[in-house]
Design goal:
The protein is of the alpha/beta class. The chain contains ten helices and nine strands.
């Protein structure tokens, strides 16, 4: 529905531009301004949040680094992040905006330069960069959801990381489809975590934890209990939930060799 509406706006804009060329230069300028205003008036209802870290050896993929070293683990992290962002940005059929939430805050320019070549092929899809805010992963995700869902026009929001190479635009579009009928959508990982979480309504907050969304409170992050504990929170808050297919993320040397086919699909060299 939203995609069709967006396409109608695009058609109207092109019609305006056509008549601009047929009109006098004064009308040309006026109508061109109107076209620009129309573009900015179209507010995307769906927003995809991508959580990333600046790829610094010793700061990313630390579990994997224990087996292959900091430099190689960092290279794998970059490969994963670039692949996922390429999948969700370049294959996006203009059905959602992409917001990159990054850390640390002082690496904004470096991160933008790193991803520039990928996002330059984004074909007009709106991409914004924002910093992650919070003391731990739960607070950071809760704050990101709160920030986006409070924006005018946004009705559905999904958050992903970059550890799962199978995430692509089709999966994201399917997840937004689930949110048309469900409060929550979640994509479980085989290791007990999750690779995707989305919501169509603000989730009740925990006042004791500083108004953090209850879905992110008392979760044992980076353990095999994350998905189970999150689903318990979903049921506790009487939220409807759709569950996507289970996928594998890459955190260990065993995961790396098991999923190396996905890392090689774009012709990347696998040598670890």
């Amino acid at each position: 529905m939203h995609s069709s509406l967006h396409n109608c706006y695009v058609c109207l804009i092109y019609t305006f531009l056509y008549f601009c060329f047929l009109a006098s230069w004064e009308s040309n300028i006026i109508l061109s301004i109107l076209c620009v205003l129309c573009v900015f008036a179209v507010k995307m209802e769906n927003v995809l949040i991508v959580f990333i870290k600046y790829p610094e050896p010793g700061k990313v993929k630390t579990r994997l680094a224990k087996d292959i070293g900091n430099e190689k683990a960092c290279a794998i992290y970059k490969l994963l992040a670039e692949g996922v962002i390429k999948n969700v940005a370049q294959e996006n059929l203009k059905t959602y905006d992409v917001h990159i939430f990054f850390t640390p805050a002082d690496k904004e320019n470096e991160i933008k330069n790193w991803l520039k070549s990928i996002l330059d092929y984004n074909q007009g899809i709106k991409t914004q960069f924002r910093t992650q805010e919070g003391r731990n992963l739960g607070e950071k995700m809760s704050n990101a959801f709160k920030e986006i869902l409070q924006e005018k026009g946004c009705k559905k929001c999904i958050i992903i990381g970059t550890d799962c190479p199978e995430i692509d635009a089709t999966l994201i579009e399917n997840a937004f489809g689930v949110l048309k009928e469900k409060d929550i959508v979640i994509g479980p990982c085989k290791d007990g975590g999750y690779y995707l979480l989305g919501m169509s309504i603000p989730v009740p907050v925990s006042i004791k934890q500083g108004f953090i969304s209850d879905l992110f409170v008392d979760i044992d992050w980076s353990t095999d209990r994350v998905f189970k504990q999150t689903m318990e929170k979903v049921r506790k808050n009487n939220l409807s939930c759709g569950i996507l297919k289970t996928l594998m993320d890459i955190d260990t040397i065993e995961d790396l060799y098991r999923e190396r086919g996905h890392l090689l699909k774009d012709g990347n060299t696998f040598m670890y």
